Amino acid sequence: MVQISLDRKITAQPKEQVLTQELEPEVDIPLYEGRRKIYPQRVKGTYRTIKWIVLFVTLGIYYGLPFVRWDRGPHAPDQAVLIDLANGRLYFFFIEIWPQEVYYLTGLLVIAALVLFLMNAIAGRVWCGYLCPQTVWTDLFLAVERFFEGDRRDRMLADAGPWTLQRSIRKAGKHFVWIMIAWWTGGAWVLYFADAPTLVRELATGTAPMAAYVWIGILTTTTYLLAGHMREQVCIYMCPWPRIQAALTDEHAFNVTYRYDRGEPRGSIKKNAQLRLEGLPAGDCIDCFQCVNVCPTGVDIRKGSQLDCIQCGLCIDACDTVMRKIGRPERLIAYDNEINIKRRLAGLPAVFKPVRARTALYTAVIAIVGGFMLYTLATRHSVALSVIHDRNPIFVTLADGGIRNGYNLRIINKNLAPREFSLSLEGLPSSVVEIVGLPIGARRVIEIGPDQTQEIRVLVSNYEHAPAASTPIVFQIVDTKTNERAQARDYFRAPQKD
Amino acid sequence: MSADRNKTIDPVTGVATTGHEWDGIRELNMPLPRWWLWIFYATIIWSIGYWILYPAWPLVTTYTDGLLNWNSRQAIMDDMAALKAQRAAMVDRIQSSTLEEILSDQQMLSFARAQGRAAFADNCAPCHGAGGGGAKGYPNLVDDDWLWGGKLEDIAFTIRHGIRSTDEQTRSGTMPAFGRDKMLERPDILAAADYVRSLSNLAVAKTADLDRGKKVFAENCAACHGETGKGNSELGAPDLTDPIWLFGPARDTIIEGISNGRGSVMPTWRARLDDTTIKSLTVYVHSLGGGQK
Ligand code: SF4
Ligand code: SF4
What we know:
- The complex is a heterodimer of chains A (498) and B (293).
- Chain A has 498 residues and is α+β, with helices and mostly antiparallel strands.
- Chain A contains 17 helices and 15 strands.
- Chain A is elongated.
- Chain A starts with 7 loop residues before the first helix and ends in a 5-residue tail after the last strand.
- Chain B is 47% helix and 4% strand.
- Chain B is built from eleven helices and three strands; from the N terminus they run H-E-E-E-H-H-H-H-H-H-H-H-H-H.
- Chain B is elongated, with a radius of gyration of 35 Å.
- At the A-B interface, strand 1, strand 8 and strand 13 of A face strand 3, helix 2 and helix 5 of B.
- Bound molecules: iron/sulfur cluster (2 copies).
- One iron/sulfur cluster binds next to helix 14 and helix 15 of chain A.
């Protein structure tokens, strides 16, 4: 019977040896692919250290940020980062975003996407290996697993052996801590949507809103499942990014690469030492499988770049350790690319081209979008005015022969105190401006509450003999105390002159 | 299964094929991950639960109700009830306030304008236009010329009872068909038309006999439109001296009006809209711009 290996990532036989063979009909190819459990081994080194730092910083921000306070005065929340859905406000330190300003969010998303592209153009799927939440939480969960169940070998042995009391206790401990972390992950999430200390108190006393419990439940479950159980499967089967980045990458991007120019032909230490003595070609790779053992997605990087590789660099650390032990130079596996391998084989020096058309373009667009956002943020006013001209009718003739246009003005007061604005009109000197609801002849002063918007209806009547068909006008509101002002342009329409 | 006979191992990838072959292209057997399959089964089970709990299967004249007794109609009713409850306080205030009070209170005014705008779009816009701009024969509600008066009470009355409608208290007033009913001779009609145009400073031909027109007007039209042609909102008789014309100021149009009469209709809304809606609608129309004090 032919042995079909579903474990093809590691043990697929060299191409040449597999012939086209007829399978016996009773060979049962399963409907599904069973999971090949991966037992990543502990590793130390440069990239592992970077990963620990990134992990502490990002998780520290995630869990701690809701508790950072920011004083905004008496009428506003004092939480530095708060998404206030009920009132449609988003607070981010000194920035307060209104619903009509979601373009800041759009800008952030555009920048985020382009940074991802840029990272990808420089170092492939590096986001996946260091910053992706799936990676960070999986790393944390793996550390917990190691704490309770030991390293790769212990875990494999235990899983292969019988259930003992000790094994059960260790597993139980691991799952308990996992669930605690998952639960606190969901808990931290909801804290971004309400005053954190208050919500913590409410959660502790069981008086928090239902939505909080539901979200904590959802996120506890997903964190526990995704980081504890699904791990690399999320990256390989569920995440669209590897597919997208495969289409975005180019030959200059630095990916974790096995330098086969140095490594091949691989063989055991003894064999390769012997070959060298005989003056025959021998590679540095001693086929120790350390790079595969530490890989969180089970990749054998020596087979070339693969979709499953998340660019975490742990195989580099593992191989470096081996190289140091056998006294060969480090970085047999390194962030590198095919171009350089080919160049080295041809005796040329390696090239490093971070500035290319695409990286320059991404950087330029990021700078433009970012600059635009900063500009709008810096020139933002605490009062805004927008105007909508009546469409039907665009103008009316009055009984006394005047021409009148109607407008709906919306005034936004972003201050956290009530304010008074006076309205004036420029561009049409001989006209009567009237605010519906205010007595005619009254001073045109509008009061607006703190952090509120108000719509007013304004009628402009003109008694010139024959006003132009379209006259540009400007509405202006002025804070009666601070003189801060906002303007909105529109037109005054009149019948076409014959 | 004969296809099984073709199951081979693909030489390039070393992976088994499914045995399916199209035009020489064979399909690798890349099975789904197990958890994926589980999710698939879970969705099937979910759907069965759904069929039992919610309305799902069509029967000949009805459908299965589902154990939860949930239906989308009830869901909408509940939403509407919730909305009503949420608005109740404001609706009560509008209910118990006079139209003037609503107009002079910013909070009530915004609410009434919002409610009125929606009611206007549903009920009035087909004739009066989305913004109340009117059309030929359908009054413009944005200007300040009113056939039946533009004060809050006048507008409310017109909306409630309609014009020449089926309501007992409806506003009525008719422009007679002077030509068709042989009350005036053709030359008199022409003269009257020219005279009316001259009242609002519209150009008239040099040959027009304005004296004759004036006489005809005094004898036939002044009763409703007034000695000076200023109109009478008690009778819905338009002001003929202003530049606003319901059917247009063209001479032929005016001749047509005198000859065959006019009598547009507006329905009564009191049967269809509740009192607060009519109040809001009144305030909305009043605030469009033409409302009189
Ligand atoms: S860790 Fe280095 S030496 Fe060992 S198998 Fe991998 S590439 Fe070869
Ligand atoms: S192959 Fe190396 S870089 Fe890629 S995922 Fe595995 S350990 Fe990380």
